[in-house]
Amino acid sequence: MKINLMKKQGFLALFFMTAVLSVTSCQPDDSIDNNGLTPATVDASFTITPVEGKVNTYKLVAQPKGVLKSIWDKGAGAYAGKMEEEISLPDAGTYTITHTAIGAGGATGTASKDVVVATSDPLKGNLVQGGSFATAADQAKWTVLNLSPTGAAFWSYANNSATLHSPGGWAQEGIYQAIDVVKDKEYTIDMKVSSPSGSDETWFEVYAGKSFPASGVEYKDNKVMGLSTWDGCAKTGFSGMLSVVGCVKNDKTGTVSNTVKFTETGKIYLLIRCGGNKFTKDGITVSKIEFRGK
């Protein structure tokens, strides 16, 4: 009797487990994901308010409910920011500000608003000419610094941008233009840089030096910022402002900084030098180049 009872209990347990597994297997694959705890969307709404006492400066404030992280884009590439951001828009024009809110479980929401800037800031005007590369006249503002004897590395212009192409093997090329600066005045340099694929043993460096660029000679006067696979950036695809995605240290400050100041009033040369050994097949593209007073 004891043996039969144990067998009967075993059969009942086996039947119960089979029934549970059967019910579980009938559940949809995403039953755990769709448990009601993860929101389908996140409210990405935000406000834009002019900052009193500052020219062409605006405060962005995202509504905080359900938002864990804020991604902002003012037209030059997305960047991770705070729910309250202060932005400067020195040039006259219409800007589309986009906010992407990220909530629990990776749920996202996106909202956009336009800001119309009526007048350019006279103190922060862009000193770069042709920084958009939009027309032949813009492109003509730049001089090519020939550093690749065979022409293996070269710049091309399209889609309001300039792209450096290189087959690798340390081939490189530069572009530059002269800019007049004032002694002891602080300036900031920035630009949008992008490449859909990464590189190895590659650099994209920005200089603001007093030395005149010489054909065939690597420019090394006052490196300000850039990308460098040795320093940990441009190894994979990237897109954004160089001040955000760059990792090269400023020669003067010893930190990653896009601020420059000069000991004399006069002419300097804003120069970009780019190349590498295992260079991305897609090239590195630059646009929206800025050189502004602070």
Automatic annotation (TrEMBL):
InterPro entries: Ig-like_fold, PKD_dom_sf. SUPFAM superfamilies: PKD domain (SSF49299). The keyword Aminoacyl-tRNA synthetase does not apply. Keywords: Signal. Residues 1-22 form the signal peptide. This is PKD domain-containing protein.
